[in-house]
Amino acid sequence: MTGAIPALSFRRRSLLAALCLGAASALISAPALARGPDGIADVAEKVIDAVVNISTTQTVEAKGGSEGHRVIPQLPPGSPFEEFFDDFFKNRRGGKDGGLQPHKTNSLGSGFIVDPAGIVVTNNHVIADSDEINVILNDGIKVKAEIVGVDKKTDLAVLKFKPPHPLTAVKFGDSDKLRLGEWVVAIGNPFSLGGTVTAGIVSARNRDINNGPYDSYIQTDAAINRGNSGGPLFNLDGEVVGVNTLIISPSGGSIGIGFAVPSKTVAGVVDQLRQFGELRRGWLGVRIQQVTDEIADSLNIKPARGALVAGVEDKGPAKPAGIEPGDVIIAFDGKDIKEPKDLSRIVADTAVGKTVNVMIIRKGKQETKKVTLGRLDDSDKATPVSVKTKPDSDDKPVTQKALGLDLAALSKDLRTRYKIKDSVKGVIITDVDADSDAAEKRLSAGDVIVEVAQEAVSSASDIRKRIDQLKKDGKKAVLLMVSNGTGELRFVALSLK
């Protein structure tokens, strides 16, 4: 038979098994280690009853017309099949005219009990837009649940239900103590099979996959598939160290790259959702950007680290504390800031109203500022985009060239052409050399240079003087503070070569 594996005789199978066992014994003294530690079975037995399936129902509006991919046959009046097709399409599709009716869809995810009173943690995307949510316990009992609160930014949700009997709950462990290579156990509902246990190791920590503003995932090779979302990731002490949330897979199945929200994040979110029904995140009131090697060199920061303050909210907590654009935040509340996302996560996790020390570098010197945090407005608001228009006049302003830029004084005419607010001060860019470093850094006509090397400029000659001085000082790059038409700032480092 083509493609079939031929069967071996009992004698040959026995001999082959003996040879394999002998070879394995010779190669490794403890073959059980290849299967993982013996404690996995103890963990699974201890926590399995705390892991639940999440069943959701959602009403979906059906699409009509050709999009439905159903065509109603046109039958002559009096045809013996006319009554049959009328009944079929009326019952299945909502009427004789073939109009499509809304229908219900079901899906299954995973979750886990954190309080015997009936509190369950899962992913927000598991229950989003659902009309009905049910929790299915490990013994098969199905109970209706309701939402306590959700947090879209971390993709977490808390549910509650009335316990039909005493429940098993699990506790959170410390995800910060996880080590690379440490064994972890995932339990969930892959492909709607019901409670399933898989094991693997911690492949990476603090993984940022650009999925959200507070990415800091645990990466694991424990098999995680569709339906595992919202399920727990356990350490070998039976503590929850993460919530399985994402996988990377071209096929939809596990290829050994799964991600879990760390328990340190989950525990804080769950506490706030249970207490307030919403998240109350700390707010510093700054816009930040990456400190690149070029920017670090311009600011005399070695090694490159921290979060560069590109803008300060007028009504934010940072402004009265004395934090300014151009400052580099290197520590917040005693925690080192290596990159901007570190600051975003730490500020968000800090209690609203708490006064903290913020360490900055300003013009090469370290300073400490005290800031009392406000509360972040988590509502999704559209960010206004400044519109840059081409000159509507043939009158060309007097310009000077520097760093591949055509620079001009900010006249009333140029403010009107490029929609520059009166509050924006500096030197306007009227053209950019397509082959320059400035073009690569996305500078464009209508941008306004406010500062050069942390000194304010008001004319093109000011900029040229600063550049000439930096070259004499042996600098390799120059740091520009650039504003758009609405006054939003950012920093750009350009090569002086």
UniProtKB/TrEMBL annotation:
Q: Where in the cell is it found?
A: Periplasm
Residues that, per the record, bind substrate: H125, D155, G227, N228, S229
Q: Which reaction does it catalyse?
A: Acts on substrates that are at least partially unfolded. The cleavage site P1 residue is normally between a pair of hydrophobic residues, such as Val-|-Val
Q: Report the domain of life of the source organism.
A: Bacteria
- EC number(s) on file: 3.4.21.107
InterPro entries from the entry? PDZ, PDZ_sf, Pept_S1C_Do, Peptidase_S1_PA, Peptidase_S1C, TAT_signal
Where is each PDZ domain found?
273-364, 384-485
Q: Which GO terms describe its biological process?
A: proteolysis
Cellular component, GO annotation: periplasmic space
Signal peptide residues are 1-34
Against SMART domains, the record matches this protein to: PDZ
Which NCBIfam families does the UniProt entry name for this protein? degP_htrA_DO
The record's family statement is: Belongs to the peptidase S1C family.
Protein name according to UniProt? Probable periplasmic serine endoprotease DegP-like
Q: Which organism is it from?
A: Nitrobacter hamburgensis (strain DSM 10229 / NCIMB 13809 / X14)
